[in-house]
Amino acid sequence: MTESDTLSTRDLGDGIVELQLGRGPVNALSADFLMGFAALITRLGADDAVRCIILSSPFKVFSAGLDLKEAQHFDLEQQQAIVRGLNEGFLALYACPKPVVASIGGAAIAGGLFFVLASDRRVAMTKSSFGLAEVRVGADFPVGPLEIAKATLDADTLRRLMLTGQPVGPVAARNFGFIDIIADDQEDLAAYSLSEARKLAALPSIAYGSIKQQLRGETIIKIKTALAAGGNAPEGGWFNSQTIPAMQRMIDQG
Protein backbone atom coordinates (compact mmCIF):
# COMPACT_ATOMS: atom_id res chain seq x y z
CA MET A 1 0.00 0.00 0.00
CA THR A 2 1.55 3.28 -1.10
CA GLU A 3 1.40 6.14 1.41
CA SER A 4 3.32 8.73 -0.64
CA ASP A 5 6.00 8.98 -3.30
CA THR A 6 8.69 8.55 -0.64
CA LEU A 7 7.09 6.40 2.07
CA SER A 8 5.18 3.17 1.59
CA THR A 9 3.87 0.34 3.74
CA ARG A 10 3.38 -3.35 3.04
CA ASP A 11 1.45 -5.86 5.14
CA LEU A 12 3.66 -8.91 5.76
CA GLY A 13 1.03 -10.77 7.78
CA ASP A 14 0.70 -11.55 11.49
CA GLY A 15 0.50 -7.84 12.28
CA ILE A 16 3.93 -7.09 10.77
CA VAL A 17 4.13 -4.01 8.55
CA GLU A 18 7.12 -3.06 6.42
CA LEU A 19 7.65 0.70 6.22
CA GLN A 20 9.90 1.42 3.26
CA LEU A 21 11.91 4.64 3.03
CA GLY A 22 11.83 5.50 -0.67
CA ARG A 23 13.22 8.99 -1.24
CA GLY A 24 15.65 8.08 -4.01
CA PRO A 25 18.42 7.68 -4.65
CA VAL A 26 19.86 7.63 -1.09
CA ASN A 27 16.98 8.57 1.23
CA ALA A 28 18.41 12.05 1.73
CA LEU A 29 16.56 13.80 4.52
CA SER A 30 14.27 16.74 3.89
CA ALA A 31 11.84 18.52 6.20
CA ASP A 32 8.80 17.19 4.33
CA PHE A 33 10.15 13.64 4.22
CA LEU A 34 10.84 13.62 7.97
CA MET A 35 7.50 15.17 8.93
CA GLY A 36 5.71 12.68 6.68
CA PHE A 37 7.66 9.89 8.36
CA ALA A 38 6.69 11.22 11.80
CA ALA A 39 3.00 11.20 10.87
CA LEU A 40 3.16 7.70 9.41
CA ILE A 41 5.10 6.07 12.24
CA THR A 42 2.76 7.73 14.75
CA ARG A 43 -0.28 6.35 12.91
CA LEU A 44 1.20 2.85 12.78
CA GLY A 45 2.06 3.06 16.46
CA ALA A 46 -1.58 3.82 17.29
CA ASP A 47 -3.01 1.04 15.08
CA ASP A 48 -4.08 -1.94 17.19
CA ALA A 49 -3.67 -4.25 14.20
CA VAL A 50 0.04 -3.46 13.92
CA ARG A 51 2.23 -5.74 16.06
CA CYS A 52 5.67 -4.84 14.68
CA ILE A 53 7.21 -2.50 12.09
CA ILE A 54 10.18 -3.25 9.83
CA LEU A 55 12.03 -0.18 8.51
CA SER A 56 13.65 -0.85 5.15
CA SER A 57 15.08 0.84 2.07
CA PRO A 58 15.15 -0.38 -1.55
CA PHE A 59 18.40 1.51 -2.23
CA LYS A 60 22.07 0.59 -1.84
CA VAL A 61 22.29 3.38 0.76
CA PHE A 62 19.91 3.07 3.71
CA SER A 63 20.00 6.83 4.37
CA ALA A 64 22.80 9.28 3.64
CA GLY A 65 21.52 12.07 5.88
CA LEU A 66 21.08 15.58 4.47
CA ASP A 67 21.62 16.33 0.80
CA LEU A 68 24.59 18.66 1.25
CA LYS A 69 24.27 20.19 -2.21
CA GLU A 70 20.75 21.25 -1.26
CA ALA A 71 21.44 22.06 2.39
CA GLN A 72 24.30 24.49 1.75
CA HIS A 73 21.75 26.89 0.23
CA PHE A 74 19.25 26.74 3.11
CA ASP A 75 18.00 30.10 4.39
CA LEU A 76 17.00 30.63 8.02
CA GLU A 77 13.47 29.29 7.53
CA GLN A 78 14.74 26.17 5.78
CA GLN A 79 17.34 25.54 8.48
CA GLN A 80 14.67 25.71 11.15
CA ALA A 81 12.38 23.46 9.11
CA ILE A 82 14.98 20.70 8.79
CA VAL A 83 15.80 20.96 12.51
CA ARG A 84 12.12 20.51 13.28
CA GLY A 85 11.96 17.54 10.90
CA LEU A 86 14.97 15.86 12.53
CA ASN A 87 13.56 16.44 16.00
CA GLU A 88 9.96 15.42 15.28
CA GLY A 89 10.75 12.55 12.91
CA PHE A 90 13.17 10.73 15.14
CA LEU A 91 11.26 11.50 18.35
CA ALA A 92 8.19 9.86 16.78
CA LEU A 93 10.24 6.76 15.94
CA TYR A 94 11.97 6.62 19.32
CA ALA A 95 8.63 7.00 21.15
CA CYS A 96 6.69 4.52 18.96
CA PRO A 97 5.07 1.99 21.33
CA LYS A 98 5.31 -0.82 18.78
CA PRO A 99 8.46 -2.89 18.20
CA VAL A 100 10.56 -1.55 15.31
CA VAL A 101 13.19 -3.58 13.44
CA ALA A 102 15.66 -1.64 11.30
CA SER A 103 16.63 -3.68 8.22
CA ILE A 104 19.80 -1.98 6.99
CA GLY A 105 21.16 -2.86 3.57
CA GLY A 106 23.68 -0.05 3.18
CA ALA A 107 25.19 3.05 4.70
CA ALA A 108 23.34 4.94 7.46
CA ILE A 109 25.19 8.21 7.88
CA ALA A 110 24.66 11.39 9.95
CA GLY A 111 20.91 11.98 10.31
CA GLY A 112 20.31 8.68 8.54
CA LEU A 113 21.83 6.79 11.46
CA PHE A 114 18.95 7.85 13.69
CA PHE A 115 16.56 5.55 11.83
CA VAL A 116 18.83 2.85 13.28
CA LEU A 117 19.46 4.24 16.77
CA ALA A 118 15.77 5.00 17.40
CA SER A 119 14.68 1.47 16.42
CA ASP A 120 14.51 -1.51 18.78
CA ARG A 121 16.32 -4.29 16.89
CA ARG A 122 18.89 -3.66 14.15
CA VAL A 123 19.85 -6.09 11.39
CA ALA A 124 22.61 -4.97 8.99
CA MET A 125 24.27 -6.38 5.89
CA THR A 126 28.02 -6.92 5.76
CA LYS A 127 28.38 -4.01 3.32
CA SER A 128 26.69 -1.55 5.67
CA SER A 129 28.48 1.38 7.29
CA PHE A 130 27.49 3.76 10.07
CA GLY A 131 28.60 7.22 11.08
CA LEU A 132 27.73 10.58 12.58
CA ALA A 133 29.38 13.00 10.18
CA GLU A 134 27.94 16.23 11.59
CA VAL A 135 31.29 17.48 12.92
CA ARG A 136 32.79 17.12 9.43
CA VAL A 137 30.09 19.33 7.92
CA GLY A 138 30.35 21.96 10.66
CA ALA A 139 26.96 21.41 12.29
CA ASP A 140 26.04 20.39 15.80
CA PHE A 141 23.14 18.10 16.73
CA PRO A 142 19.51 19.13 17.13
CA VAL A 143 18.24 18.22 20.57
CA GLY A 144 16.15 15.22 19.49
CA PRO A 145 18.92 13.28 17.73
CA LEU A 146 21.42 14.36 20.40
CA GLU A 147 19.39 12.97 23.28
CA ILE A 148 18.59 9.77 21.37
CA ALA A 149 22.29 9.24 20.71
CA LYS A 150 23.19 9.90 24.36
CA ALA A 151 20.52 7.47 25.55
CA THR A 152 21.45 4.76 23.04
CA LEU A 153 25.26 4.80 22.86
CA ASP A 154 27.87 4.57 25.60
CA ALA A 155 30.24 7.47 26.23
CA ASP A 156 33.18 5.92 24.38
CA THR A 157 31.09 5.18 21.30
CA LEU A 158 29.72 8.74 21.35
CA ARG A 159 33.30 10.01 21.43
CA ARG A 160 34.35 7.72 18.61
CA LEU A 161 31.45 8.57 16.31
CA MET A 162 30.61 12.18 17.14
CA LEU A 163 34.06 13.68 17.60
CA THR A 164 35.68 12.10 14.54
CA GLY A 165 32.81 11.95 12.07
CA GLN A 166 34.37 8.81 10.60
CA PRO A 167 32.21 5.78 9.71
CA VAL A 168 32.51 2.27 11.10
CA GLY A 169 31.55 -1.09 9.62
CA PRO A 170 28.95 -3.55 10.87
CA VAL A 171 31.32 -5.59 13.05
CA ALA A 172 32.48 -2.48 14.92
CA ALA A 173 28.86 -1.34 15.16
CA ARG A 174 27.89 -4.70 16.68
CA ASN A 175 30.81 -4.42 19.11
CA PHE A 176 29.61 -0.92 20.02
CA GLY A 177 26.19 -2.44 20.76
CA PHE A 178 23.96 -0.70 18.22
CA ILE A 179 23.79 -3.50 15.65
CA ASP A 180 22.36 -6.86 16.73
CA ILE A 181 22.67 -9.15 13.70
CA ILE A 182 24.87 -9.09 10.58
CA ALA A 183 23.47 -10.65 7.39
CA ASP A 184 25.58 -11.84 4.48
CA ASP A 185 23.32 -10.73 1.65
CA GLN A 186 19.96 -9.18 0.80
CA GLU A 187 18.11 -12.47 1.14
CA ASP A 188 19.55 -13.06 4.61
CA LEU A 189 18.80 -9.47 5.58
CA ALA A 190 15.12 -9.86 4.73
CA ALA A 191 14.92 -13.26 6.43
CA TYR A 192 16.64 -12.19 9.66
CA SER A 193 14.60 -8.97 9.81
CA LEU A 194 11.33 -10.85 9.41
CA SER A 195 12.40 -13.47 11.97
CA GLU A 196 13.18 -10.76 14.53
CA ALA A 197 9.90 -9.00 13.76
CA ARG A 198 7.94 -12.21 14.32
CA LYS A 199 9.58 -12.73 17.70
CA LEU A 200 8.74 -9.19 18.77
CA ALA A 201 5.22 -9.33 17.33
CA ALA A 202 4.50 -12.40 19.47
CA LEU A 203 5.20 -10.54 22.71
CA PRO A 204 2.32 -9.08 24.77
CA SER A 205 1.82 -5.69 23.16
CA ILE A 206 0.63 -3.74 26.21
CA ALA A 207 3.60 -4.82 28.30
CA TYR A 208 5.98 -4.15 25.42
CA GLY A 209 4.75 -0.59 24.99
CA SER A 210 4.81 0.01 28.73
CA ILE A 211 8.35 -1.30 29.20
CA LYS A 212 9.58 0.67 26.18
CA GLN A 213 8.11 3.79 27.77
CA GLN A 214 9.81 2.94 31.07
CA LEU A 215 13.15 2.65 29.28
CA ARG A 216 12.79 5.72 27.06
CA GLY A 217 10.33 7.95 28.91
CA GLU A 218 12.93 10.14 30.60
CA THR A 219 14.65 10.89 27.29
CA ILE A 220 11.32 11.53 25.55
CA ILE A 221 10.32 14.04 28.23
CA LYS A 222 13.71 15.74 27.98
CA ILE A 223 13.31 16.15 24.21
CA LYS A 224 9.72 17.37 24.41
CA THR A 225 10.67 19.90 27.09
CA ALA A 226 13.50 21.24 24.95
CA LEU A 227 11.22 21.50 21.91
CA ALA A 228 8.61 23.37 23.93
CA ALA A 229 11.36 25.82 24.91
CA GLY A 230 12.17 26.57 21.24
CA GLY A 231 14.39 23.66 20.22
CA ASN A 232 12.66 23.37 16.84
CA ALA A 233 13.56 26.93 15.86
CA PRO A 234 17.13 27.75 16.95
CA GLU A 235 17.69 31.48 17.00
CA GLY A 236 19.94 32.45 14.13
CA GLY A 237 19.37 29.09 12.43
CA TRP A 238 21.20 25.79 12.65
CA PHE A 239 24.34 26.66 10.70
CA ASN A 240 27.36 28.62 11.88
CA SER A 241 30.03 30.52 9.93
CA GLN A 242 31.96 27.32 9.15
CA THR A 243 29.07 25.09 8.07
CA ILE A 244 28.68 25.95 4.38
CA PRO A 245 32.44 25.82 3.61
CA ALA A 246 32.63 22.48 5.45
CA MET A 247 29.70 21.13 3.44
CA GLN A 248 31.39 22.20 0.23
CA ARG A 249 34.59 20.40 1.22
CA MET A 250 32.59 17.23 1.83
CA ILE A 251 30.94 17.57 -1.57
CA ASP A 252 34.30 18.10 -3.25
CA GLN A 253 35.72 15.02 -1.54
CA GLY A 254 32.87 12.97 -2.99
Describe this structure in words.
This protein is of the alpha/beta class and 254 residues long. Helix content is 48%, strand content 14%. The strands form 2 sheets. Strands 1-2-3-4-6-8 form a 6-stranded mixed beta sheet, sandwiched between helices. A two-stranded parallel sheet has the order 5-7. Strand 2, helix 1 (31-46) and strand 3 (52-56) form a beta-alpha-beta unit. Helix 1 runs parallel beside helix 3 and helix 3 packs parallel to helix 5 (143-152). The longest helix is centred in the last third of the chain and has 27 residues, at 205-231. The mean pLDDT is 97.
A few lines on this structure:
Helices cover 48% and strands 14% of the residues. A hairpin with a 2-residue loop joins β1 (7-13) and β2 (16-21).
List the helices and strands and how they pair.
Elements: E1 7-13, E2 16-21, H1 31-46, E3 52-56, H2 68-71, H3 76-95, E4 100-104, E5 108-109, H4 114-117, E6 121-125, E7 130-131, H5 143-152, H6 155-162, H7 170-176, E8 181-183, H8 186-201, H9 205-231, H10 243-253
Parallel strand pairs: 2-3, 3-4, 4-6, 5-7, 6-8
Antiparallel strand pairs: 1-2
Identify the notable features of this structure and list them briefly:
alpha/beta, globular
Major pleated sheet: 6 strands, mixed
The strands making up the biggest β-sheet line up spatially as 1-2-3-4-6-8
The percentage of residues in β strands lies in 5-15%
SS-derived structural category? alpha/beta
Radius of gyration using CA atoms only: 17 Å
The residue ranges in which pLDDT falls below 50 over 5 or more consecutive positions are none
Cα(first) to Cα(last) distance is: 35 Å
Give the fraction of residues assigned to helices.
40-55%
DSSP strand count: 8
Judging from the principal axes of the Cα atoms, what is the shape? globular
- The average pLDDT value, as a whole number, equals 97
H-E string? EEHEHHEEHEEHHHEHHH
Helix tally equals 10
